[in-house]
Structures are given as structure tokens and as C-alpha cells.
Description:
Blueprint: E1 8-11, H1 13-17, H2 27-40, E2 44-50, H3 62-69, E3 76-81, H4 84-93, E4 97-103, H5 106-113, H6 117-122, H7 125-133, E5 137-143, H8 156-168, E6 173-178, H9 185-198, E7 203-208, H10 215-224, E8 229-232, H11 252-261, H12 270-284, H13 291-295, H14 298-302
Amino acid sequence: MKLPSKVVICEVGLRDGLQNEPKILNVSEKLKLAEGLIEAGFKVIELGSFMNPKAVPQMADTDELFRLIGNFEGVELRALVANKKGVERAIDCGCKKIKLNVSASKQHNLANINKTPGETVAGFAENVDLALKNGLEVSGSISMPFGSPWEGLIPIDDVEEIVEAYIGVGIKEISLSDAAGVATPKQVYDMCCSMQKKYPHVKWWLHFHNTRGMAMANILAAMEAGITNFDTALGGTGGCPFVPGAAGNISSEDVVHMMDEMGIATGIDLLKLIELSRNLLALLGHAGDSYIQKAGRSKDLYK
Length: 303
Ligand code: ZN
């Protein structure tokens, strides 16, 4: 089995997890959680998003959170941005890394904004320029490249068209996000091999929701294909408003545990992570979707 010696995990619970929660955490609760994640060893954290606060009230205080947290040496704190207003908010509050997103579904893009996904990405040029001019880093995300509720499987040519559009506006870091939870390990392996071969200068991230229990197998398949950057969320929090029955992201503690057990370095302290996750779920008032929260580490069983 071909496995990497280390991986980088981006904790997305503060954004993807909390944006779907009926209970809105206050900024000091978020700050405490973010500082805890940094202390546990995370080097990449998605702190929030700059969306319309009326549409996503859970993320309304992302600006304040960035101001309060300041800069941590060697830690990348990123946020999701939808438009120019979002880029301006990111610049104003000191956010240094933004992520743009487009759905890979042609039907979804055409129905919502009357553009193909590639045209949508080409339209990001002004936002990318504004961000770069102000010293921000920019990455891009492609949502549902493995399949969407609107048209099922997405042809790989369509996904490549979006990748090329991102490259065209100067973005070289791209995340493939299975928000619908439909990707299979074989599909992930094939897509990761083909994307890396065709676009070797792109830094790839994979983002899996565990809606059908395939996320962990997909991470393994992506590692076999040479991918080493993954998004995960504490306690398996998260969801997707567009996808029926959507489950959360694959849980951070489950992924870090698997990596630990296989000798793949993450730099993350699993015990601290388990505690942070437990505290978050207590705060949210519901159980998460994490095997490790239920069963504990394998190591604890052997004691
Ligand atoms: Zn997600």
C-alpha cells in the first residue's frame, strides 16, 4: 500500500460545521475553540466565511473572530468568500487566506446565475486581483465534482474546465469537495491520479462528507493517489443545505486516529482534539458523528 509519511489536515468545523447548526456560538466560544485547535497542532484552520449575515447568521462574526485571534506564526487561518464584498471584509479584518467556491454542476450554476461553472470562475478574476493586490492568498474549491443531486455524475471534462478556469484567474490551490457524499474510493483514486498528472502544479485538497459512510475510504484512496491535504471537522459536524439527508464532514478525530494508527504524521495531539470535540458537541447540545467519540482510541482498548 502506497501511503504518505505525513498529511496536512485543515479543521473546517468552525466554518462548515457551525454554519449548519441551529445554535449560534458567540465569538468568545469560537475564539476559545480556534485557540484550542492551534494548541492541539492544527496548522490550517478554516475560521469562518464572509457571507451575507442574513443568509448565514452563524458566520456573521467571522470578521470579529479574525480581529481577535490575530496572527499565529506558521498557522494558516482561512475563510470562505462568495463575492467582492466578502474579499473586502477579509482585507479589512486581517484575514490572509480566502477560498472561493463554485459548484461543478452546470445545471445548478445555470439555474442560479445563468453561467456555466467555468464562466462563474472566470468572473472571480476581479475578486482574485483585489485579494492578491492586498497581500491575501487565494484558493478555489469545486463543490460536488464527484456527483450532484441535480445531474448525478459530473463528466471529468466539466471538472477539468473548472480547474482550467481557476488556473486562468491565477489560482493554483484547488479543493475537490464531495458535499453530496456520493464519491467512491475508485472514483476518487482515478480523479486524483488524472488531475495531478494533468495539472502537476496545482496544490490539491480533498473534502469529504460522510453521508454514505465512504469518506474514510475516500481519504485512503486519495492518499494512495498521492494526495496529502484533507479537510475534516470536529465531531463530524457539518451538512449541506442543498443535499437531502446530508451528513457532516468526516470527523477530525476519526481521521487523526487512523493516521496515528498507521504511522502517518499529522502533528495533531489526538487526546486534545477528542476533548475539544467533546466540549463542542456539549455546547451544541447534540451527539456528533464520530466513531472515536463513541469508542475511544484503539490504544485505549489494548491497555
Ligand atoms: Zn463541506
